[in-house]
């Protein structure tokens, strides 16, 4: 589904290399997790994949279902099926959450040459999905993420993911800031979307999320590279021993 | 203070070019207004109150030409149930207008009643304008009182059955028009007045509004459209106890527009909201000048102005909240913001608070900024193309002003207008 080869990226403004040869393939139907020390480049990888300004890819490639995504505009990547749940969801005063979501859903449909969703159908679907994430009607009406608590923002990301039904979901620390119950809700939301056509890349610092969203593969990222990959037991190892031992081992 | 010779000359040149309409009961008010114009002199470049806006083309004896603008757009407020009164280049169009009969209101034309001996509007015509000449002079308003050729006189005695919609059409590239409306809202009565369209190549419009205790006046207008049009407007309002006034203006296009609003809260517990959204692309100068005077206890005032500017457009905001010594418990709010869509445009502001009472809550703020890149990326990452995302953020920027329109159908009309304007400029 997502194939990243020897990806190098640096900041546009200054000569600072952040990604230094990332190799990673997420197959359809699989959940991959990325763990790694602060500043190792996990969020940068997610931004480079989703097309945020400010980064320059100097080497390597990234494809989604065989298509080169690095050449695409962010909105084209989204329409192609890429979704990033932000580590820090953005507040947009003045734009209602519902309007935002409907605009997004229909923009993607339009880009793919599909029929747009009418207001009534949209309302029905969003109500249902919001309910399962315990997002109340008031939060749907309010401006996007404005005045939302940390946990509400994260749940709102998952709601967007559920509405947009992407092929490839990247979750950047969606668990941070969540209480135990909210974490379960989010995990259920993610698990509900798991199917054989869809890939997941879950960035996290904690084993706890992975108790709920069982990963197929766990990667350790350090200094802009995937330095080690393994099964779910790798996450446990990090949880118990930290990164020091692991990083020494690969150094 | 004696006027400078150039100012006297310019004023006399303009007066010489004016035609005095038939006076009737307005004759005295008009005569006094001419005197006021002579005493004040027409605005000139050096005047402090015209620091950000060149008055030249608004005061010149002849109006600069303004090309007509072709548009396929359906007229604004088309979906709104309303009573239509149409002026074509300032000339009343009976054919296009509705019958003036409306429950809760009497409607007359200034030109018709000018020959009558006496009229309810006698106490208002030019009176609120004259009051509004202090502490700053507004000579173009006095000029309007003196020479307005026509206008609508609206007397609301109860809650009006539907909005009164004054429609201005521009068909003559050289039209130079002065219209003057008077609105009197009786105690407990309510009326909504809509104004729309480019009135003339050069338009001088004035509206005086007197709202008695518990009355309500709502005003929504759209202006501009034709790129080369010029307008100087004045709105004078006086509010009684517990009364409400809400005025919203959408200015889209127009090479030169100056809108002055002068509100006096004279009765306790009154509420006045003045708001506006401006859309300027290129040769666009839009000046909003507001003075809200609190002269009673526990009144609320809001000034909310948002301007979207691109390609060298200029926005101006001069807004003042004046709180008199006895106006305790005043709640005053003022915000003026611009969204600069490129580096060429400018927003010039002079926000002022002048407070003589001690128990008041007044706040004001002004900002100038570009589209929020973070928000733009967030939207794009969800699949919304840049153009559409920018429009969405622009509408969001304007939302606080548009929300000042209480009636949902009217605010929808305004949002549609703004959306269409943005769409015509969308670069995807
Ligand atoms: N726009 C930027 N400007 C300056 N430095 C940046 C920028 N983006 C990323 N960096 C730097 O690149 C490095 C990687 O940052 P990134 O956010 O990708 O780390 P991370 O692995 O997600 O960390 P965390 O676990 O703390 O979220 C850090 O040193 C960060 O400071
Ligand atoms: Mg991060």
CATH class of chain A: Alpha Beta
Contiguous uncertain segments of 5+ residues of chain B:
none
Helix content of chain A: 40-55%
Largest sheet of chain B: 10 strands, mixed
Number of domains of chain B: 1
- Ligands, deduplicated: adenosine-5'-triphosphate, magnesium ion
Q: What would you call the quaternary organization?
A: heterodimer
The beta-strand count of chain A equals 12
The string of secondary-structure elements of chain A, in order, is EEEHEEHEEHHHEHEHEHEEHH
Helical fraction of chain B? 10-25%
Number of DSSP E strands of chain B? 19
Q: Might you state the CATH topology name of chain A?
A: Rossmann fold
Judged by helices, strands and strand pairing, the structural class of chain A is alpha/beta
How far the N terminus sits from the C terminus of chain B, by CA atoms, comes to 57 Å
Low-confidence stretches of chain A: none
Describe the protein's architecture and organization.
The complex is a heterodimer of chains A (251) and B (428). In chain A, 40% of the residues lie in helices and 28% in strands. Chain A is an alpha/beta fold and 251 residues long. Chain A has one domain: P-loop containing nucleotide triphosphate hydrolases (Rossmann fold, 3-Layer(aba) Sandwich). Chain A has a six-stranded mixed β-sheet, with helices on both faces. A four-stranded antiparallel β-sheet of chain A has the order 2-1-4-5. A two-stranded antiparallel sheet of chain A has the order 7-8. Chain B is of the alpha/beta class and 428 residues long. Chain B has one domain. Chain B is built from nine helices and 19 strands. Chain B has helices at 5-17, 27-40, 56-59, 110-113, 127-131, 139-147, 373-381, 386-402, 408-424, and strands at residues 83-88, 91-92, 105-109, 152-156, 164-169, 176-185, 190-196, 202-211, 216-224, 230-239, 244-252, 256-265, 271-281, 285-294, 300-310, 314-323, 331-340, 346-355, 361-369. The radius of gyration of chain B is 21 Å and the shape is globular. In chain B, 55% of the residues are buried. The A-B interface holds A 50-53, 73-75, 77-79, 84, 86, 89-95, 99-100, 103-105, 107-108, 111, 143-144, 160, 164 and B 372-375, 377-386, 388-389, 392-393, 395-400. Bound molecules: adenosine-5'-triphosphate and magnesium ion.
